[in-house]
Design brief:
Blueprint: H1 3-13, H2 21-28, H3 32-44, E1 49-52, E2 56-59, H4 68-72, E3 83-87, H5 93-102, E4 109-113, E5 134-141, H6 151-170, E6 175-177, E7 181-184, E8 187-198, E9 205-215, H7 242-258, H8 266-272, E10 279-285, E11 288-297, E12 303-307, E13 312-315, E14 319-322
Parallel strand pairs: 3-4
Antiparallel strand pairs: 1-2, 4-5, 5-9, 6-7, 7-8, 8-9, 10-11, 10-14, 11-12, 12-13
Length: about 325
């Protein structure tokens, strides 16, 4: 770890505290000149560092820049062994983690980007990922306890985990559009993409990349025209350290769900926040559309629907369209 990285960890750990150059030098076992260079390097990366004569340095309380050190401080002790990397930009965090998985990376590899140039959503759609206003995170899993059929439950668990993180940050309950989109105030604020690698001989999952993309703030130049009526953001004004906290709280919640699969603790939230249950929906499958009534979600996270002819079905994959009521719009 570089002097700059160690300094950032020190400043992130106690944002309200000024550290003198001498104290930092002693703690990091470097020279005062090295401390000054590290401060300048962090400032060049956009970190607002306050400097006060006879007090020293501190990271501004208003700072909201993603960093591995910033995320780690929100993780519960049992999850601090995660290998967290924060990149200024990436084509796709899922692509980066897939590559690391192919190179033998262990479960728990986390890659976060402040911007994606080729972010993807489900069905090959582009995921708009502008710089510094969102959270784009991918996590490598090696889910020996799950079968490919159960992959939908990991997506549901991720949706519930992000729902908890959003509620903790904003105090507002989200809505979940089956299977993987989060809504807040009637607008989509988060999408989830899971990609699995299955062994041809065993049929078992060898690895899974779980990706989440969150619109934390409105983009500086607004959303593209095609997203203007659909997309929203978790927050509408800056909140100190919101992105690091959101990432940390999501990982805490998801990993608690993931490491205790038999409990399926996410199902209560997933059902409670469902935007589909109790509504008429349009089921989109194989290029066809069919109207149905969604009446529940079963223990395998399948959406239970009944079509107009009385036929019932349990959907484990696919897509639905929902017409939200005016009060949710």
């Amino acid at each position: 770890m570089t002097t700059k990285d160690r300094l950032l960890a020190m400043l992130e750990g106690k944002r309200d505290v000024f550290f003198s150059g001498e104290d930092i030098a002693k703690a990091l076992q470097v020279s005062r000149a090295a401390v000054w260079k590290a401060v300048q390097a962090l400032r060049a990366e956009g970190y607002p560092i306050d400097a006060v004569t006879n007090k020293g340095y501190r990271l501004s309380r208003e700072c909201d820049i993603l960093s591995a050190q910033g995320v780690m401080k929100y993780l519960k002790p049992e999850y601090r062994s995660l290998d967290v990397t924060v990149l200024p930009t990436a084509d796709s965090t899922n692509a980066v983690v897939r590559q690391r998985a192919a190179e033998g990376a262990a479960e728990g590899c986390v890659v976060i980007a402040r911007e994606q140039t080729a972010g993807r959503g489900r069905l090959g759609r582009r995921f708009f990922s502008p710089p510094d206003t969102g959270l784009y995170l991918s996590l490598l899993l090696r889910p020996a306890a799950y079968t490919p059929r159960q992959a939908v439950c990991l997506t549901a668990a991720a949706a519930a985990a992000m729902g908890r993180a959003v509620e903790q940050l904003t105090g507002q309950a989200p809505g979940i559009k089956w299977v993987n989109d989060l809504f807040l105030r009637g607008k989509k604020v988060c999408g989830i993409l899971t990609e699995a690698s299955v062994g041809l001989e065993t049929g078992a999952m060898e690895s899974m990349v779980l990706g989440v993309g969150v619109n934390v703030y409105p983009p500086r130049d607004g959303f593209p025209e095609e997203l203007g009526t659909i997309a929203g953001s978790v927050l509408d004004h800056p909140v100190p350290d919101a992105k690091n906290r959101l990432a940390g709280e999501f990982l805490n919640a998801f990993l608690a769900f993931y490491t205790h699969p038999e409990e399926k603790a996410y199902l209560e939230d997933y059902r409670r926040w469902s935007l589909a249950v109790g509504r008429e929906v349009t089921v989109l499958s194989g290029g066809r559309e069919a109207r149905a009534y969604a009446y529940g979600i079963d223990d395998d996270c399948r959406l239970l629907v009944r079509y107009g002819d009385g036929k019932a079905d349990a959907l484990s994959y696919g897509e639905i369209a929902i017409r939200l009521q005016p009060e949710n719009a």
